[in-house]
Specification:
269 residues; 12 helices; 434 Repressor (Amino-terminal Domain); 2 domains; 6-stranded mixed sheet; alpha/beta; Endonuclease, Chain A; elongated
Amino acid sequence: MARPPNEPDPRTGPLALFATEHRRYRKLAGITQAELAAELNYTNQFVGMIEVAARTPSRQYVDGADRVMKAGGGLTNCWLLVTEMHIPKWFGPFIKVEAECTALRAWECMVIPGLLQTPDYARALGHAVRPQATDEQIEHEVEVRMRRQEILHRPAPTSLWAVIDENVLRRVPDVMHTQYKHLLEISELPHVVIQVLPYGAGLHAGHMGAFEILDRDDADGIVWAETHTGGRFFDNQDEVSEYIRVYDHLRATALSPPESRKLIATLLE
């Protein structure tokens, strides 16, 4: 059967598949594009562009459309494939290991660790790092980052220990109020520990840059470090042991968890 004009071929990619599923669920629900647009407070043109794969929808739109069309989560699940389009190929392997790890130790000297970022912070960081990116691209990157944080809230959560340089807490002032509150709230979880390395610590063992140590039940520990153009794993156990030694020095030099919370609370005032 010939495909109607402008209807995308779902075999060509995740966005085309989403557009096809969106159209199918809408027709099953017996509603028009105009009716769906009115219900979700979008324009008819926007909904039309979704169904020809000319626009990438936000999570807010998808959740609303899934509800109105009674898709039972099917449309949202399809949309998750679309978000994968915005993950750099070099970062995909890290996301997989991160999702499987039982414990993660992070040292960060430039930005708030991804697992601790608020949407506003992630958004501001995305625009700063990629000034050429569109708002739509940044929004999808933020969605991916928020999904990664689910490992901290699942029934058997990943344990997170983060050491953050104090200068990180004093950047991006426009969005930091909410970020400080989030750090205080999430540090109350029994499996999350946050320490701040204060200015007064002077030179320290972590001056070579940020890294993360990921522990897995069925494999040796592994280290991840990023650059502007990619990232890499270090799985040689001699190298991993060196990173662990550096991390232990950073933890010993940093403020204690209660003192770190006190500093963050002071910045919140």
